[in-house]
From TrEMBL:
Keyword annotations from UniProtKB, A to Z: Aminotransferase, Pyridoxal phosphate, Transferase
GO molecular function terms noted in the UniProt entry: kynurenine-oxoglutarate transaminase activity; pyridoxal phosphate binding
Cofactor (UniProt): pyridoxal 5'-phosphate
Record Pfam families: Aminotran_1_2
GO cellular component entries: cytoplasm
Family membership: Belongs to the class-I pyridoxal-phosphate-dependent aminotransferase family.
NCBIfam families: PRK09082.1 (NF006569)
Keyword Acetylation: no
Keyword Hydrolase: no
Protein name per Swiss-Prot or TrEMBL: Methionine aminotransferase
InterPro entries membership: Aminotransferase_I/II_large, Kynurenine-oxoglutarate_AT, PyrdxlP-dep_Trfase, PyrdxlP-dep_Trfase_major, PyrdxlP-dep_Trfase_small
All residue ranges annotated as the Aminotransferase class I/classII large domain in the record: 24-372
Species annotation: Flavobacterium aquariorum
């Protein structure tokens, strides 16, 4: 008997497979196609010949833990203890899965804000807890009245994703004030903040939970070197949490992966001495602006993109098809793959919106735009 009877193949896998079968340009799955920084690949090349291939400590490579603490201090002015408040993980997905499995008990309720990334629900169900899906407003701002009415004494956690995938929205000061007031009423509820796109924001920076004193003692903050350094295949991320939560999370982590890829940890640790992580947003802002310019004469209506490397577009002026069928036809007839936003909702809410990934080289973006502007 299946533990996840309603879970099917991920929409990302479906669309990427279709893209490959039809030789389409894949703007669906969120991965860059441009070269990694040569300084990073040179580090890896050198390390491959050094004695760095055995287990690191369970929490992570100690120099990397120290550099993450320094990074959090420089980025958010928060002091954290490398030995007890950071855990290196095999990607952000493993960080999320491990945290939920460690902290949830049967019948706990976890609030998820739709449209939501698809890795949140499965570990909740496997913990025999209950996902409580609450839709954002149609402009993708939080509906705090609906969120508040979903909270109860059974609420163990609320998950936020900021900057937000798939919409590219970021939460503002008012959102955090309302969240803090809500959590004050429910002192036993925890917060999981998925901030994997924290260094990919544009006109205004996102507000991190690292900067919220009222939240940090009950919050697990998730980050991703894979996203920040364009090495998604490395599957290397980390989480920051107070000691009492990390202690429980490590109990699961040690039996799930024990420790993370050693050479990647050491490479990232060395690379952090060379790179200015705050320059990443400039790279992606140029790509966002270029992609939007390329599509300005198309029939797509582009939604605001405040962060992430995703552009949401409305095709309401083009077709009345549901978004899944439209995306499939986009692949088979026009050779471009995108993701239908309805698949991020529990109820399949269809607003005639699709998501493009613009983390691609200019040649790819130009050819994709050429195909999209003839629709």
């Amino acid at each position: 008997m299946s533990k996840l009877p309603n879970v099917t193949t991920s929409i990302f896998t479906v669309m990427s497979k279709m893209a490959a079968e039809h030789n389409a340009i894949n703007l669906s799955q969120g991965f860059p196609n441009f070269p990694v920084d040569e300084r990073l690949t040179e580090i890896v090349s050198r390390l491959a010949h050094e004695d760095v291939h055995q287990y690191t400590p369970m929490s992570g490579y100690p120099p990397l833990l120290t550099k993450i603490a320094t990074l959090v201090k420089s980025s958010y002015n928060r002091n954290i203890l490398p030995e007890t408040q950071i855990l290196i993980t095999a990607g952000a997905t493993q960080a999320i899965f491990t945290s939920l499995l460690a902290l949830l008990k049967p019948n706990d309720e976890v609030i998820i804000l739709d449209p939501s990334y698809d890795c949140y629900e499965a570990p909740i169900l496997l913990s025999q807890a209950k996902p409580m899906r609450v839709s954002l407003n149609d402009d993708y701002t939080p509906n705090w009245n609906a969120i508040a009415s979903t909270f109860s004494e059974k609420t163990k956690m609320i998950i936020i994703n900021n900057p937000h995938n798939p919409t590219g929205k970021i939460l503002n000061e008012s959102d955090f004030e309302k969240l803090e007031l809500l959590l004050e009423k429910y002192p036993n509820a925890l917060l999981l903040s998925d901030e994997v796109y924290e260094y990919i924001t544009f006109e205004q920076k996102h507000i991190s939970t690292h900067t919220r004193p009222k939240l940090i003692d009950r919050c697990i903050t998730i980050s991703s070197f894979g996203k920040s350094f364009h090495v998604t295949g490395w599957k290397i991320g980390y989480l920051v949490a107070p000691d009492y939560l990390i202690k429980e999370i490590k109990k699961v982590h040690q039996f799930l992966v024990f420790s993370v890829n050693s050479i990647c940890q050491i490479a990232v640790s060395e690379y952090l001495d060379l790179v200015n992580i705050n320059e990443i947003n400039s790279l992606y802002q140029k790509k966002r602006d270029y992609f939007r310019t390329l599509l300005k004469n198309s029939r797509f209506k582009l939604m605001p993109c405040e962060g992430t490397y995703f552009q949401v577009a409305s095709y309401a002026n083009i077709s009345k098809e549901n978004d899944v069928d439209f995306c499939k036809r986009l692949i088979t007839e026009y050779g471009v793959a995108a993701i239908p936003i309805s698949t991020f909702y529990e109820n399949g809410k269809d607003l005639k919106l699709i998501r493009f990934c613009f983390a691609k080289d200019n040649q790819t973006l130009e050819e994709a735009a050429r195909r999209l502007t003839v629709i």
